[in-house]
Amino acid sequence: MGRITEDLIRRNAEHNDCVIFSLEELSLHQQEIERLEHIDKWCRDLKILYLQNNLIGKIENVSKLKRLEYLNLALNNIEKIENLEGCEGLTKLDLTVNFIGELSSIKTLQHNIHLKELFLMGNPCADFDGYRQFVVATLQQLKWLDGKEIERSERIQALQNFPVIEQQIGEQERAYCLRRAKDKEEAQRNLREEEGNEAKGRSYPGFEGRRYADIRGYSTPFSVESKDHIQAAEGQEGECNQKKFKDSEDDLEFWNKPSLFTPESRLETLRHMEKQRKDQEKLSEKKKKVKPPRILITKDGKALNVNDPKLDFSLKDDEKRNQIILDLAVYRYMDTSLIDVDVQPTYVRVMVKGKPFQLVLPAEVKPDSSSAKRSQTTGHLVICMPKVDGVITGWRQTSKPGESTLDSSREHTNQRSKQIEKLEVDPSKHSFPDVANIVQEKKHRPRRVQSEPKITASEEDPDFEDNPEVPPLI
Fold first, then answer.
1. In b/e form, how buried is each residue of 241-262, taking b as 16+ CB within 10 angstroms?
2. How far is CA 317 from CA 87, 325, 326, 396, in A?
3. What does DSSP say about strands 355-360 and 306-307: parallel, antiparallel, or unpaired?
4. Nearest CA to 260 among 176, 193, 170?
5. Nearest-10 Cα torsion for 399, 402, 408, 412
6. Which run of H or of E encompasses 415?
7. Domains (range + CATH), the chain
8. CA distance 193 to 187
9. pLDDT value at position 96?
10. What's the pLDDT at 395?
11. Across the beta sheet with 70-72, what order do the strands follow?
């Protein structure tokens, strides 16, 4: 059964930043609350209070709510109107579908001078003869009753007939109280019988299918220990099915049993549903099997590809930057604290809400240089893993980084040497004129300050002729 707690009020005060002392509107409907408590101490500034569809049996602990304007107590177990005199600002009161049979208790609402609307439909008192005229004459500040406006002529007529109507209402009220007392006695008797039957069932645990050993110390033929595990499992499953069938029969019998609409019947229905829910939870816990741990790496050390979160992904080989990029489509609005990334040289593992995603990489990577980022727009997880020089291909031996560096330097040196040999010229095979001695100095040229060496014919070139008429090269 539910109770009004500070945590419950804070959870329903999100619109006020979970601050309860300055709360002006509070909704606590459908919380299985049986008693009104603590609200007048914690939320004194309330103006609107919703408490419909609960199990409240008495109006109490609301007299200090001076600013309360609207109180909704529909679909509860209230039998009498009381303790509302202190709600000075109350303008609307909803008591639809309760168990109010003492119609004379509405006289306590005469102190609420600002009360304009009242709902009493669905109560036993609403079936009394002269019900509306009695309420209209008693509460002269009312403007609306059960959603219908009160006209001036209706109030005048009700005031004229009030003595007769009051006497009729009193007789019907006394008759209802007698019937109600009988219903209470019958409900209490049925409750005692049910508790006695439950106590008997608990005192004989043998009915639950248990087996006991013989007094002499050896097991009887019906002992569970004398059976193997398969037969025990079958027997347990049969007992569960039998119990489930019995519970379904009891449930069908409970709902088909005729009963009066009383506060006790509502409480009984709620307890039956709560018992069903607990039994269902116990059965589900028994059926629940512990899953074996997920195998991510085999005994021989081989990593497996696993995608328990069932996420889309893409794996790209960026040759330009010499790295492998994994794009994992993580849920967009999931908190990053629920993601754990582990990069190994041959595989990458991502735990998403405890579920493993593991992928074997096509090449060896550097875990220390790897990085993981999350997109702020799509929520995807992008893991960049730089590759090392050695490439893993099955069971072949990978080349070491040092050896590959030496080999590449040697090849580079050989290529350079080959290129230099191609550019070399053998002077023994090819002869060229001495450029420095081509131009001869002439004495009649005043502009030459320094003397230039004469150009002599090369002995190696027999076809050379020195023509003095040819001007020298400048």
1. eeeeeeeeeeeeeeeeeeeeeb
2. 74, 6, 9, 21
3. antiparallel
4. 176
5. -170
6. helix 401-423
7. 2-178 (3.80.10.10), 306-386 (2.60.40.790)
8. 10
9. 95
10. 40
11. 25-27, 48-50, 70-72, 92-94, 117-119, 144-145, 148-149
Determine the Cα–Cα distance for residues 47 and 141; give it in Å rounded to an integer: 20
Q: Rounded to an integer, what distance in angstroms lies between the CA atom of residue 450 and that of residue 66?
A: 122
pLDDT tens across 252-292, in order? 776 676 667 788 888 888 887 888 888 788 777 766 666 67
Query: Model-level pTM?
Result: 0.52
DSSP state of 440: P
- Give me the amino acid identity at 388: V
How far, in whole angstroms, is CA 405 from its chain's centroid?
Answer: 53
Q: Which residue type does 82 have?
A: E
**19 contacts: CB under 8 Å, gap ≥ 6:** 13
Counting beta carbons within 10 angstroms of the beta carbon of residue 200, is it exposed (0 to 12), middle (13 to 18) or buried (19 or more)?
Answer: exposed
Q: Which phi and psi (to 5°) does residue 403 adopt? A: -65, -45
Distance CA(226)–CA(206), nearest Å, equals 18
Query: 73 with 94: CB under 8 angstroms?
Result: yes
Q: Which two tokens stand for residue 223?
A: 């002992």
- pLDDT tens for 224-245 read 343 444 444 445 555 556 656 5
Residues of the chain with pLDDT under 50: 204-234, 390-405, 420-423, 442-444, 448-450, 457-459
For every residue of 207-250, DSSP letters joined together read: GGT-----TTSS--TT-GGGS-HHHHHHHHHHHHHHHHHHHHHH
344 — alpha (psi -120 to 50), left (phi > 0) or beta?
A: beta
- Opening angle at CA 87, ends 24 and 41, nearest 5: 55
Separation between Cα atoms, residue 154 and residue 165, nearest integer Å: 14
- Cβ contact 68:44 at 8 Å: no
